Model the fold of this input.
Amino acid sequence: MQRTPEALGAELAALDAAGLRREVRIAPDTAIDFSSNDYLGLTKHPQLIDAVAAAARRYGAGSGAAHLVTGHGPEHAALEAELAAFVGRERALLFSTGYMANLGVVTSLVGRGDTLLADKLNHASLNDAALLSRADLRRYTHRDHQAVATLLGSVAARKDRAASAIVTDGVFSMDGDVAPLPELAASARTHRAWLVVDDAHGLGVLGATGRGACEQFGLGQNDVPALVGTLGKAFGSFGAFVAGERDLIDCLINKARTYIYTTALPQPVAAASRAALKLVDRESWRREKLMHNIALFRGACARERIPLVESSTPIQPVLLGSASRALAASEALLAHGFIVKAIRPPTVPQGSARLRVALSARHDAADIVKLVELLAEATQP
Ligand SMILES: *Cc1c(COP(=O)(O)O)cnc(C)c1O
Done:
């Protein structure tokens, strides 16, 4: 399509008519937020704020250059060591965002002639990473590990020297369900393929001590050799990392263009992540309260006959089907002071627009009870 100024206008009007136009809004700070990924309630924690202020005074607001130039500082180095220890990996490498971490790790591991197996409901950044890598992309049915085993078997039989990789979200960002990691790890091992797990929504939340989806399944570095984590969700800060063996990290330092050709994350941001890591580790009550809130929400929805999907994580989608229905329900909730964003195509497949409820340790029982009451009204067919 030729995008003349008139064509842009028509395209936007078409999005509007289909209930698919996106708009940026300032979130009202008096409303109760059930959409942010601040699962442990850390974004406004005084220890994070103090860490930012102290690091800014010491190191400045910006890092001034890429990590490989002069941008790498003591807060980055300390955070990388602490993250590696936290997830039980040899090393960890910081990236400025999860989006960039995914582009960096996938394009460093596979290229033209290689094969990439990706869950159909993976995060957009993993899909973009796949395209950028130029590997042969096979998207498999959501969570279908049997399909992965079959596909990997046939690829291995055809190409003996090409690399292959399985990439998956740990917790699916719009659905809240968890990838079948033990089965994927077994297939990867059998066929000597990489397994890349993006645990943006599991880290800090899942597992007995918040180490994420890998901990929930008892999987370590040998099972999941490339682990991606983000710091802007449960950690309440910003940034991301890849963790794995020393050689993997050295390879990323040398090959990952989204690591090499970009300004390092500011040190105050790394300092905030370090403060968050301590709280995630020490204050298990946050995770317990979050799990309690999830159970409370699901119980209340069952009583109100609000249909939910199988999810034991803070991400609890309420499927509504059409984009306009989801949008109307979201607006109705906002009018009562509750932020629950409508998630529409192309973020989710056609016909599966939804309200994505994200629970947090910040929420009180009363907030959740009231939300469910409003949801029951707003989602009536
Ligand atoms: C949020 C998210 C990302 C992107 O992380 P950012 O740090 O926000 O760029 C990547 N993967 C998944 C699964 C996510 O949910």
Summary: The longest helix spans residues 284-303. DSSP finds 15 helices and twelve strands in the chain.
